[in-house]
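Annual report, structural modelling task.

Input specification for the flavin-adenine dinucleotide complex:
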Amino acid sequence: MDLALSEEQEAVRKLAEDFVAREVTPHVVAWDRAENVDRSIVKKLGGLGFLGLTVPEEYGGSGGDHLSYCLVTEELGRGDSSVRGIVSVSLGLVAKTIASWGSEEQKRQWLPRLTSGEAIGCFGLTEPGTGSDAGNLVTRAVRDGGDYVVNGTKMFITNGTWADVVLLFARTNDSPGHRGVSAFLVPADTPGLTRRTVHGKLGLRGQATAELVLEDVRIPASCLLGPEGKGFSIAMSALAKGRMSVAAGCVGIAQAAQDAAVRYAGEREQFGKAIARHQLVQELLSDIAVDVDAARLLTWRVADLIDRGQDFATAASKAKLYASEAAVRCANNALQVFGGYGYIDEYPVGKLLRDARVMTLYEGTSQIQKLIIGRALTGVSAF
Ligand code: FAD
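The model returned the following structure:
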């Protein structure tokens, strides 16, 4: 496998690095403290093409490869995971799913707006009572003439308060488990849909996370995405690719932890010399460096498999599992290098640790990734 980046890939990576330095890094601490990323960032992300990277050009995307998408996601995650999440969800989970499953009319309606940043999407799967066991969701869409009437509640929805369109999963018949779940594209201004900001998060504090409440929300049948009853497969195929994006964001966190820890270790002196000269500090730094490389290689492998058209779902679970656990370890090791200064938010590593922590929870917890990998190894489902 040739791991050298092409000129185009290096150019798009550099574009993202410069964007982060200019538009993200100067505001990170303020956004985190205020629990609010400046929404104008969405148009800027769209303007540079970051919200349409892997979407076909005819729908406003750039039709790029998945390694380029990983590189951009990594750079955004290195800068701020809240900003990275906007792209991972609106492009990775919503626009890509519309591109794969949408009718021509749905693609024309939503993709140019989503890729330009004029509109933003959210992915409504989790409910208060069903997280890991998403196939047992209880939000209901009942057919009524030419419409569906939707009732239910969605929890922890990234981009939820900002979104213009909700990719919503709801039960359309009473079959148990995931059979009978369908996907819908619901305009967020549809009467009966209300949203409440989820406050007090440990990390991703700048991100617009919401609870969505749907009370007699009436949508035309043309909002159905893909065939009725196919919703759970649609959600799972979206999440398989989404896991690569989360993994790339985790590589970004781990790389940021390494950069900050190496810099600080060279500057801070204790016992008459830079702490980088103490062997146990070098152990912390080398543990971080090995995790960064391993997480990146697992993640790039997923991109390579996707771009070659090969099966990638188990590789994506391995990458997401490893990279998310690695991001937590790297940020924690970096905090140790910073000593007491790592514990206050004037320095970057505490936020990296808080932001990393959720990565082992969403888009399938670490336990769920292990069950997916175990099922692929044994042929036995142990969920
Ligand atoms: P539970 O499923 O209740 O799990 C609790 C614990 O039990 C975990 O440790 C889990 O691993 C373990 N467990 C559960 N089942 C098993 C099993 N079979 N074997 C072993 N262990 C098991 N959801 C969306 O739909 N869209 C979003 O945009 C979105 N964004 C999010 C953003 C944030 C900040 C957060 C915190 C969550 C977000 N989520 C989103 C929800 C997220 O995907 C869920 O929180 C996650 O799937 C876990 O579900 P849960 O929280 O209900 O935990």
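The mean pLDDT is 97.
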